[in-house]
Amino acid sequence: MTSTGKRASLDKLPEEVASMFDDVAPRYDVVNDILSLGQTRRWRKVVFDAVGAKPGQRVLDLAAGTGTSAEPYADAGIEVVACDFSLGMLRVGKRRRPDIDFVAGDATNLPFADNAFDAATISFGLRNVTDPHAALREMLRVTKPGGKLVIAEFSSPVNPLWRTMYLEYLMRALPEVARRASSNPDAYIYLAESIRAWPDQDHLAAWLADAGWESVAYRNLSGGIVAVHRATKPGQAPVHSGPVGKIRRARRAAG
Ligand SMILES: C[S@@+](CC[C@H](N)C(=O)[O-])C[C@H]1O[C@@H](n2cnc3c(N)ncnc32)[C@H](O)[C@@H]1O
């Protein structure tokens, strides 16, 4: 995995990304569970705890896809808005969870007012946004002062041996599993490549600070296969705040 943050040959137009997710929508959650060897449930619990939202608060789940990442909030009686620009993903989500508020919107130009949410979160979606810096700024705009941002994204395994094994799995096994289980295996090849090209933990932490977020920290999951970043919007804190857990302060990345 590189830490360059380069999107290079992976650059896709926003319409191409949306249409790719439209294609994989019907089997997205099943394939996801297979590819992550069932780890997604544990990762999602960590994200939910880091957001630390309480009933009465309003959470934005951006790039929510079929709404799987929004479900824990709805299940806990927390108002959650699941926003995504793939109508195919939203349709599958709405059919599955009619109780969740699904909203079509582009992460780089959100259809919400300033300070509209107590917290914003994005799971396995920031990497797919064509301009992730703009998305980080938009999430800052729509979050209340003192409100939280929590990002779950594939990252860079810390242990060199684990990293080699993971990259091997990513580039060989994952496309093969996807070929058998998904209607659009090319989409999963793109996803595997986009994971390799995504910036590492410290680099992403620096992007958050550059966008205006403060108190940036992250926690590695599954040895760094996934990192959960968290930050706060400058300003007065809301009444509720979540557990700090094992999250540690991020070092600012060089370059
Ligand atoms: C891998 S899925 C993640 C879905 C869900 N958050 C989850 O955890 O299962 C990534 C999602 O990002 C969405 N996405 C990519 N770029 C976007 C953008 N610019 N605006 C809104 N959604 C976007 C895609 O449509 C897709 O549904």
From TrEMBL:
Compositional bias, Basic residues, is annotated for 246-255
User: Which keywords accompany this UniProt record?
Assistant: Menaquinone biosynthesis, Methyltransferase, S-adenosyl-L-methionine, Transferase
InterPro entries documented for this protein: SAM-dependent_MTases_sf, UbiE/COQ5_MeTrFase, UbiE/COQ5_MeTrFase_CS
Question: Sorted alphabetically, which PROSITE patterns does this protein's record hold?
Answer: SAM_MT_UBIE, UBIE_2
GO MF terms here are: demethylmenaquinone methyltransferase activity
Which PANTHER family does the annotation name? Answer: 2-METHOXY-6-POLYPRENYL-1,4-BENZOQUINOL METHYLASE, MITOCHONDRIAL, METHYLTRANSFERASE
Sum up the protein's function in the record's words: Methyltransferase required for the conversion of demethylmenaquinol (DMKH2) to menaquinol (MKH2).
Provide the protein name.
Demethylmenaquinone methyltransferase
Q: Which gene encodes it?
A: menG
